[in-house]
From TrEMBL:
Domain Radical SAM core as annotated: residue spans: 44-273
GO function term, MF aspect, one: 4 iron, 4 sulfur cluster binding
Gene Ontology biological-process entries: porphyrin-containing compound biosynthetic process
Protein name, UniProt field: Coproporphyrinogen III oxidase
GO CC term, one of those recorded: cytoplasm
Organism for this UniProt entry: Aeromonas molluscorum 848
Matches recorded under InterPro entries: Coproporphyrinogen-III_oxidase, Elp3/MiaA/NifB-like_rSAM, HutW, rSAM, rSAM_sf
NCBIfam families in the record: rSAM_HutW (TIGR04107)
Length: 448
């Protein structure tokens, strides 16, 4: 919860990053029948902020560090999936739930969405426009540069996509080859230059630090390359070793080359963050920076801040009427359910009575700072001892009515968020009862 007291908190406040995301937990799954599900889609939303998430669970190649590979990018299989997905989106767009308030962001993720055929991309873009979108809605297409040719680029632009997020990971050819990335350094840089030459859309590059073979010199060059590439935004993600990946298997067999340990990855993060900011890039979150104001990273901020996210596609996650939702990844039951007019298999969670507060805390810590005046007085008093300990450990600074994470705190932000949610559960407010800690459902919805 607090991190360790250390003369170098960036490297040693925690032993390792524990997860990619943090949440309070405690909500229980709900058994929701098809009638109750259909009724949800006939109800207007009560959410202020809304986005769509659309999942394309196919990749032409599995990256060595990835633990989320789902399906190979077989063209016929992808086209069948896209036809079913677009019909599901068309039906969803016509419901009172979808039409009751506009969507400020759409994110098409995966998998590798850019592996879909240009014709499927055009159909997807057309059906997205059936939803009520704000005038300045951010429409993001995620993917890789390899295979994203001029036809797909022009198709995406014509369909309304105005933001593209590409997984570069590293520009170094040898590091990329070890990570099972396809294009060599020169081709990656050349394609980014082509896409950013005319500011037709926002281009974002993802980099990973701590990849095998990526020493400090290579990482410094990666940062220099991304700053000179013309992209509008960049994400810096730490490699989190996960079981089941190719990297995990070769490491077990002793065939993995040099890879940065935890303290070295912390140093790499510090170098990347400080170099970007010294170069005039603005930090939007603890892992994301922008070169120009055209990059808003709206979907990511909305998702962290508790917006309603309507999910579509096998493996998609979001929330509907305040209930967390995750569809199953298996394509066969997904296709069968949609063909029969049923809800796709997945898990629906009970409401979190603390959702608004949790979203405020998570969203603020993700950006690196929290305005304490936004907290209720009792919550502020509850959390202040934790914040003071973070300050003692070099992870945050209390300045008046603001908690500001240090560079070390920003590196360890997910650990801090997880620790905060553990802290509030172990130190409940006076009068908090077991019922509020374990939500069982919401009035007005049919639960089975």
């Amino acid at each position: 919860m607090t991190g360790l007291s250390s003369p170098d908190p960036l490297k040693f406040a925690f032993t390792a990053k524990i997860a990619a995301h943090a949440s309070r937990g405690g909500a229980r799954p709900l058994a929701l029948d098809d009638k109750g599900w259909q009724r949800w889609w006939q109800e207007a939303t009560g959410a202020r902020d809304r986005a769509l998430y659309i999942h394309i669970p196919f990749c032409k190649k599995r990256c060595s560090f990835c633990n989320f590979f789902e399906n190979g990018a077989n063209p016929a299989r992808m086209s069948r999936y896209m036809a079913a997905l677009c019909e599901n989106l068309r039906q969803g767009a016509e419901t009172p739930l979808a039409q009751s308030a506009p969507f400020a962001a759409v994110y098409v993720g995966g998998g590798t969405p850019t592996d879909m055929a240009a014709g499927d991309l055009a159909r997807l873009a057309e059906v997205i426009q059936r939803f009520p979108l704000t005038q300045d809605a951010e429409l993001t297409l995620e993917g890789r540069l390899n295979g994203f040719d001029e036809q797909k680029w022009q198709t995406a632009l014509a369909g309304g996509f105005n933001r593209f997020s590409f997984g570069v990971q590293s520009f170094d050819t040898q590091v990329r080859q070890q990570a099972a990335r396809i294009d060599e350094r020169g081709r990656v840089l050349a394609r980014l230059a082509e896409l950013t030459r005319v500011d037709e859309a926002v281009i974002v590059a993802d980099l990973i630090f701590g990849l095998p073979g990526q020493d400090d010199a290579i990482w410094r060059q990666d940062i220099a390359d991304v700053m000179a590439s013309g992209v509008h935004g960049v994400d810096l993600y730490q490699l989190i070793p996960m079981p089941g990946t190719h990297l995990d298997r070769v490491q077990e067999k002793g065939r993995l080359g040099w890879a940065a340990d935890g303290p070295q990855r912390a140093t790499m993060y510090g170098y990347g963050a400080q170099t970007l900011e010294q170069g005039g890039w603005q930090r939007l979150s603890c892992s994301h920076w922008r070169r120009t104001d055209s990059e808003q990273s709206r979907y990511n901020q909305m998702a962290k801040g508790g917006a309603e996210i309507l999910p579509f596609g096998a493996g998609a996650g979001g929330n509907v009427h305040g209930h967390g939702l995750m569809y199953g990844r298996d394509l066969t039951p997904w296709h069968q359910a949609l063909a029969a007019g049923r809800r796709a298999p997945g898990m629906v969670m009970g409401r979190n009575p603390h959702a608004e507060l949790d979203a405020l805390l998570r969203g603020a810590l993700d950006t690196g700072g929290l305005v304490l005046a936004l907290l209720p007085d009792d919550v502020k008093a509850q959390l202040l001892p934790l914040f003071q300990t973070w300050q003692q450990h070099g992870l945050a600074v209390l300045i008046g009515e603001r908690l500001e994470l240090t560079l070390a705190g920003r590196f360890w932000t997910v650990n801090l968020q997880a620790g905060l949610f553990e802290y509030v559960q172990l130190n409940p407010l006076a009068g908090a009862d077991a019922a509020s800690a374990h939500p069982t459902g919401a009035a007005g919805h049919s639960l089975v």
